[in-house]
Amino acid sequence: MMCKKRFLFMLAIFSFQLLFAQRETASQPNIVLIIADDIGWGDIGCYGNKDVRTPNIDALGSAGLVFKNMYLTTSSCSPSRSSIITGRYPHNTGAPELHDPLPARQIMFPEILRKAGYYTALSGKNHMGPAVKKAFDMISSGKGPGAEEDWVSILQNRPENKPFFMWFASHDAHRDWQFDERGITHDPEKLKVPPMLYDGPETRKDLAAYYHEISRLDYYVGKVVEELKHQGILENTYIIFMSDNGSPFPRNKVRLYDSGIKSPFIMIGPGINIAENSSLFSAIDIAPTMLDIAGIATTDKRIQGKSFFGVLQGREQMIRDFVFAEHNWHVFQGYERMVRYKDWVYIRNGFPERQNLAGESTKMFPAGKELWEAYERGLTNAAQEDVFLKPRKPEELYNLSGDTFQFTNVAEVGSNQKILAYLRKVLDEWIVETGDSKPQNPTPDRDDVEGKRLPGAWKKREKPGERNEADTINRSGPILEKDLR
């Protein structure tokens, strides 16, 4: 009899512990990460764009924290996403060039969340290869022209007894353009044309179509928020809105100027009561921050980023003095490296003898074609002629306090030689510590300036960092000034 009573008592204790554990798990915050495709940091209403209509994203900005200086590690779709999911620089992921699949040996923060009890789902653009399957309970290619149409149903059909992480990745606003009733029609004649583009009718139509796709994504952002409210879980959910690289126009996407390498980055969630932060952050910092939000301690040294959870809580203002970024092969051969420090941006070009091109700066798309035609007729100005420079300067230095678009290279100004020498040292330190290397046999151009495939066999060659086995190196390079030797 005593044994039976003891068994029933122990069963009751176990049931209580199990119930408590389930409630404790359920109280862990949910996370929804919305990644836009090819949307520049300044092309959102709350970042100052008065032409595009993004009321739902703007509402997130009003309710949460708007990051003014979130830097991506590269302005190229697949390597940027692989960098975000691993918390590693592109040359350290083993997937630094466009279309490189992420090696399965690399760490992925959703995989850690999944092992810790989170339900994890990816919907929309993957572009990281098959290795990410182990990081997600469910993967969908998405529905609709922007791949956002199943986001709400995924939220509705998730397991109810688990916290969740959603990687919602739209195809908006990636070319080619697709139109539907979910996006807003923008009048080309009323738009302000960015100064690096030629102000012509085809470029204006191109911009209007781009803004249409941004507004469609905004519609589905609103639907996600609406569903979270309907389920009564918005207050326990972090929502992040960001982009993978700059806009698909000349001198933006692929490039290391702010128009290419900065991301809009907005967060709302429990405990976030700061409206804006202008300190420097890197996309590699997202992975450790997501784990901190979930209360998951990890000592995995493969994550090179630094958590900014303290910034979200108001305990810290900044976490780093430097951000670094890289430009590798993306249709055209490329090797550039960048460091930002305070208001200074230093860029080093490994192939100064070449034009700095991307598919979006060729004649393949309307804005690029119109720019080339205007240049050939002598109708462009210096701000619009960057993509035609050949040779280029091997070093570029910009002071963002008075040069928002980085149009004026001040590397040769005598009074700037001290800061130039300092940033050379900082970048050298990062290159050495992270095992970066300029390819001796780099991947060649795949297309020509017409946007057509070059004749003959084409294949990828040596990758940045490959010579140093950088994909096995975990050092992050300097984050704070005290890290410099």
Question: Descriptors for this entry?
Answer:
485 residues, globular, alpha/beta, Alkaline Phosphatase, subunit A, 2 domains
Estimate what percentage of residues fall within beta strands. Answer: 5-15%
Sequence stretches where pLDDT stays below 50 over 5 or more residues: 1-26
Helix fraction, binned, reads: 25-40%
Q: Give the averaged pLDDT, no decimals.
A: 94
Extended strand count: 13
Q: In CATH's first tier, which class of the largest domain applies?
A: Alpha Beta
Question: How many structural domains are formed by the residues?
Answer: 2
End-to-end Cα distance: 72 Å
What class do helices, strands and sheet pairing give? Answer: alpha/beta
Described by the principal axes of the CA atoms, the overall outline is: globular
- Give the CATH H-level superfamily of the largest domain: Alkaline Phosphatase, subunit A
Keywords: Calcium, Hydrolase, Metal-binding, Signal
InterPro entries: Alkaline_phosphatase_core_sf, Sulfatase, Sulfatase_CS, Sulfatase_N
Pfam families: Sulfatase
Protein name: Sulfatase
